[in-house]
Amino acid sequence: MTLTDQNPAVPAAPAAARIRTFHPRRGRMSGRQTDALERLWPEYGVDIDELDGPFAPAALFGRGAPVVLEIGSGMGDATAAMAVADPGRDYLAVEVHTPGLGNLLELVERHGLTNVRVAKGDALDLVRAMPTDALDAVHVFFPDPWPKARHHKRRIIQPEHVALLRSRLRPGGTLHCATDWAEYAESMRDTLTADPGLTDPHNGFAPRPAHRPVTKFERRALTAGRPVFDLIHPRQP
């Protein structure tokens, strides 16, 4: 992992004052997940808490291809499927659930993927360490909806976080969110359409894009009768 000196200042609360948008989770690891994590982490993994300076995502991959940031990659099935279908771009998947990291690394090895890296920790801390225009796309698929009103402050899609993510997109780069939580979808729509640096080509919700794989989580939502909402907002050129 290579660090870079380019890191324009972005106003942010002190680390101790920041509200986490996720629950740190530890789950039972299968044997293959444990094995993949132990063997492949040194080559493919980044511990966000250990970063001590600016971070250049492109340097992880050893080439100058566009980089897609996957925030909350879960078990990694969707990330691996997109990376297989999109070899011209590199995918940096951030997750806090250790079995998910191990599962994605196992998929990386199984499919012989060279365009995937994984990071453990707070994705927003990782983004803060990046230079501007570092990313071709940011995906936030099915984030925790934090449904109780008193917890809405923990949602990742809110104005200050969107401004941060947008600042790391190249001009024309895309912020793509998806959720099956209707109230959160409306909040996302209002937040994204209000951001002055993003465009709204779909006038709110977007048609479901074919390139976003259907995950087990999404299938369960659809089976339960919950519609899925996509929001796709490019950064202004």
Automatic annotation (TrEMBL):
GO terms for cellular component: tRNA methyltransferase complex. One of its GO terms (molecular function) is tRNA (guanine(46)-N7)-methyltransferase activity. S-adenosyl-L-methionine binds at residues 70, 95, 122, 144. Pathway: tRNA modification; N(7)-methylguanine-tRNA biosynthesis. PROSITE patterns: SAM_MT_TRMB. It catalyses: guanosine(46) in tRNA + S-adenosyl-L-methionine = N(7)-methylguanosine(46) in tRNA + S-adenosyl-L-homocysteine. InterPro entries: SAM-dependent_MTases_sf, tRNA_(Gua-N-7)_MeTrfase_Trmb, tRNA_methyltr_TrmB_bact. Its EC number is 2.1.1.33. Substrate binds at residues 148, 180, 215-218. Pfam families: Methyltransf_4. Keywords: Methyltransferase, S-adenosyl-L-methionine, Transferase, tRNA processing. It is an enzyme of class 2 (transferase). Catalyzes the formation of N(7)-methylguanine at position 46 (m7G46) in tRNA. Belongs to the class I-like SAM-binding methyltransferase superfamily. TrmB family. PANTHER family: 3-DEOXY-D-MANNO-OCTULOSONIC-ACID TRANSFERASE/TRNA GUANINE-N 7 - -METHYLTRANSFERASE (PTHR23417), PENTACOTRIPEPTIDE-REPEAT REGION OF PRORP DOMAIN-CONTAINING PROTEIN (PTHR23417:SF14). This is tRNA (guanine-N(7)-)-methyltransferase. It comes from Micromonospora palomenae.
